[in-house]
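step: validate -> pass
step: tokenize input -> pass
step: predict -> running
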Amino acid sequence: LGKLPLVIGMPVMISRNFDVDAGIVNGCIGTLKQIRYTIDNSGRHHAVSCVIDAPFYTGGNLLHLPDNHVAILKDSADVTF
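step: predict -> pass
step: emit ->
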């Protein structure tokens, strides 16, 4: 398949240690709030970042985002079931 559908309001899990001191670490769960994407010449959407509501976040507020909301940048990971 190679694709992961993203839906606003869905639960998401962090799969990398982005900011250990602030609690953005592998295994933490949050809620998807926003998706930023580009659109290619064929009209396909490609996610480049998203914002999640992360109740475990202990860092400072990010500019223009509500409390406990953090920006997550595009990354890839191999997932097997």
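step: describe -> The mean pLDDT is 87.
step: cleanup -> pass
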